Amino acid sequence: MDTTFLIAIATMGGLGFLFAGGLALADRKLRVEENPLIGKINDVLPGANCGGCGKAGCYDFAVNVVEGTSKINGCPVGGEDTVNAIAELLGVEAGSAIKMLPRILCKGGHIEAAKKMTDYYGPMSCTAMHLVGGGDKKCSYGCLGGGDCVVACPFDAMIMTENGLPEVIEDLCTGCGICEKACPRDIIEMHPENRSVFVLCKSHDDPKTAKEVCSVACSGCGICARKSEGAIVMDNFLPIINHEQVDASIIPFDKCKTGAIVNIHAKPEPVVEEVTEIEEKAE
Amino acid sequence: MDLILIFFSAAIVNNFVLSYFLGICPFIGVSNKISSAFSMGLAATFVMVITSIVTWLIYHIILVPFELEFLQYVSFILIIASLVQFVEMFIKKVSQPLYRALGIFLPLITTNCAIMGLALFIVLKEYTFVQGIVYGLGAGAGFTLAITIMAGIREELDLADIPKPFRGAPITLIVAGILALAFMGFSGLISG
Prior knowledge:
The complex is a heterodimer of chains A (about 280) and B (about 190).
Chain A: H1 2-30, H2 36-44, H3 58-67, H4 79-90, E1 100-104, H5 126-131, H6 148-152, E2 158-160, E3 166-168, H7 178-182, E4 188-192, E5 197-199, H8 207-213, H9 223-226, E6 232-235, E7 238-241, E8 261-263, H10 271-282
Helix pairs in contact in A: 2-3, 2-4
Chain B: H1 2-13, H2 24-29, H3 34-63, H4 72-94, H5 96-102, H6 106-110, H7 113-124, H8 129-157, H9 169-184
C-alpha cells in the first residue's frame, strides 16, 4: 500500500517535472519574437474578449490592427478612448472614425397611422404584438410602438415618444446595434451618422392601401427613383436607396407627396402640414 | 483488414461526435463556416493522432509496469495539455501559415473530452500501438466529417427563413440532433 502510494507520487511528480521542464525549454528555444506593439495595443483594449469586433478576442484584434487588416476603430466596446489610444500607439490619425447611429425608418406614430377596428390588449412588447396579428395599427410594416428597442438599449439612449415612436438620444448612443436586432419589423437600421437621405417608411403596400393605413406612408409612386439618376430603385412600391451613390442635392424632396423621403440633416420644414392640406383637398 | 475496420468504425459507425456525443463544444462553436470547421477538424485529427501515440507509450511503458493504471485519467490530462502546448509552440516557430490555419484552434481542443475519450477508449479496447494510431486517425476523420457537414448545413441555414425564436442556437441544436439520428443508421454495421 505504502509503496504504491510513493510510486504514484514519484511517477506523477516525475511526469509533471518532465513536461514542465520540456515546456520551459521549448519556450526558450522556440520563442517567436512578436511586434511589441501588439502587446501594447492589447493592453489598451477592454479585454472583454466579447468578439464584438468579429475577431477571436482582443488579442487577435490587436494582431489584426498592427498588421493593418482591422481598422483601429473596429472595437465597438472601447469607444473613442480606445481608438485614440491605439491611434497614439500607431501614430496615425484617429479622425477617420465615423460613428454608426440607428435610424428609425417609420414616421407613423399614433397620430399618423390608422388604427384597426379592434384594440390590442396584451404585453406591451413588439415581439408579442408582431406574433399575434401585428398590433393595433393597420399598417403591417410600421413601428408597433411596443418599445422593445427602448428596453433592449443597454445605454438608455432610446426613449418612446408620446406619439408611440422611439427616438434616439444621439449623445448617449454608442452604435452597438442591439436595437436593430431587437426590432421584429426591421425598422431600425444602423447607418454612418453622416448619411442624410432616408426613406422613413418600410411599407410595400400599393399606393391605395398605403394611403388608407397611414398618412405619412410612402405611397410607392416612384418619383424619387425617376429623378435620382439610378441612386434610388423601386422594389415593390418601396424606394431602395443606394447609399454609396445617393446625392442629397438631386433628390426631389419637394416632389414626395407624403414626405416619406427626407434629408434628416436638413432643417425641418413644415412638410407635414402641407401634406394634410393636400389630402383634405383630395378628399 | 482489421485496421481498416477500426478506421471506419471510429470515423463513421461509432462517430465520436454523433454517436458518442463527445466534443460537442467545438462541433457547435466552430461550425459557422466550412473553412474554419475544416481547419478545426484537421487540428483535432492532428492532436488525436499525437495523443494516441504518446498516451499509449506512457500507459504501456510507465503506468502498466508500475501497476499505476488508476492514474490514467490524471496522467492523460497532463500529457494532452502539455503536449498541445508544445505542438502549438513548435508550429508557431516552424510554419507560420500552418499556425494561422491550426493555431487558434489547438488550445480549444486541448481540454476537449473527445481527445480524453480517445485516450481512454484505446486503453479500454486494449488496442496495440498501430491500432491505436489508426483509431486516432479514424476518430479525427470522423470529427472532421461531422463538423464539416454541420458547417455546410449551417451555411445554408443562414439563407433560410427560420422562425425568429428558432434562429441561432436552437436551430443549430435541432440540426445536430437530426444529424445524429442520421448517423444512428450506421449503428451495428461494425461492432467495436
